[in-house]
Amino acid sequence: MVRISAFNLQPGAALITVGTLYLVSTPIGNLEDITLRALRILGEVSLIAAEDTRRTRQLLSHYAIKTETTSFHEHNKFQKIESILVALSRGDVALVSDAAHRFLE
Question: What is the pLDDT of residue 52?
Fold first, then answer.
């Protein structure tokens, strides 16, 4: 789990924290192979950006987590980045990998 804080860095603007981006990896097979911290984060953020929303919804349903989700993957990242940044300006966002650690490719 990685926590990245975002700041307003416009010239002359005050430094303002606008949200935290959490990078959350998910279990490869067994839905119970997830940390309590990851489950807490997924339940607390205002948006979950998921590489594969179908797999993420299975995980969220298993743990009765009702957080809004949106897709965010290699093929739509340029179309989705603005809306994710807007969500981040309003609160915390979790970026969820598809079954393990594939964020930094």
Answer: 86
Rounded to an integer, the average pLDDT of 18-44 is 90
Distance between CA atoms of residues 44 and 75, nearest Å:
27
> Strand (E) positions, the chain?
2-7, 17-24, 47-50, 69-71, 93-96
Q: Which two tokens stand for residue 37?
A: 């911290």
* Parallel, antiparallel or unpaired: strands 93-96 and 69-71: unpaired
CATH no. for residue 37? 3.40.1010.10
Number of domains in the chain: 1
Residue 101 lies in a domain: no
pTM score > 0.85 for this model? no
